[in-house]
Amino acid sequence: MTREPTSTARQGSGMLRRMAWLVPALLLVAAAIDPRLPVDGPTWNYLVVIDITQSMNTRDVQVDGQPIARLAAAKEMMRRLLARMPCGSKIGWGVFTEYRVLALTAPAEVCDNYHDLRGVLSNIDGRMSWAGASEVSKGLFSAIRSAEAIEDRPALLFLTDGHEAPPLHPDHLPKFDGAAGRVAGYLVGLGGDGLSPIPKNDLSGKALGVWRADEVMQNDTYSQGRGTNDALVDENGRPMPVRPGSGVEHLSSLKEDNLRRLSELTGLHYVRLHDSESLARAVLGSETAMVRRTTRAVGWMIGAAALVILLLLYLRPGQRGRKKAFAN
Hints:
The chain is of the alpha/beta class and 328 residues long. The protein has two domains: 17-35 and 299-328, no CATH class; 40-295, 3-Layer(aba) Sandwich (Rossmann fold). Helices cover 32% and strands 22% of the residues. Strands 2, 5, 6, 7, 8, 9 and 14 form a seven-stranded mixed β-sheet that branches. Strands 1-15 form a two-stranded antiparallel sheet. Strands 3-4 form a two-stranded antiparallel sheet. Strand 3 and strand 4 form a beta hairpin.
């Protein structure tokens, strides 16, 4: 004859079942705390400078199959890059207009400051501009000096269409007084190959149509002279050649030749923005990576284990309704 389990045995079995349900509950609490494990891995440290001049409002960049403004594309690519950077990495934001760079934040650790970094990035727009010029060469040189002045010397990520306003005279280009390659990083070009109208906005960001040919400087400053019949002369006293205006400075395209020239001059790598994947492969490569002790979030793994255990307990055959067999 098979005997019924004793009362003590049934109580023990019930306690084990209750303890089994307690395990996933404790795991879920641990997952909510989001523990981190120390690991050695590659990290990156970037000062990101975004061109906010009005040519960056030109809508000739494709993101997810939709044409958007260059500035909007730059911000979207940086949002995606920020999300991909591993803990221990740092990123800081800056903006360029006129001929200078304004650093908005020093590079900060991306995991601890993720929401703050996203908030600053989302608020970057053309209304922050303090002048209408766009002297990209001088702005890049200013960005390099800014990166050098930061204590741990981050790499530089400079996003621009390369459109110089006023235009440059080919014989009198701005000179770089730094050492090429002293600051590592990337010069990222945005924009289409064909000329497109540049949207015109007032100081509050209100759209005013597009810029016309008679509203922008079509000649470089050297060709304009002093506004008299006296020609400008160079340091050797020779008259400077006058270059006729292009007549298309009110239109914009990606000035890739200018950016490649600046890349060679400064030692930065030039990369054209196509999509977030290609950009991430470039700027999160080994060239600017540093191996250091950082932390890796494991809360999601603990939470997944808790859900698996809960599922197994839920699907476990019940004890009720079990047939009791009595044999004589």
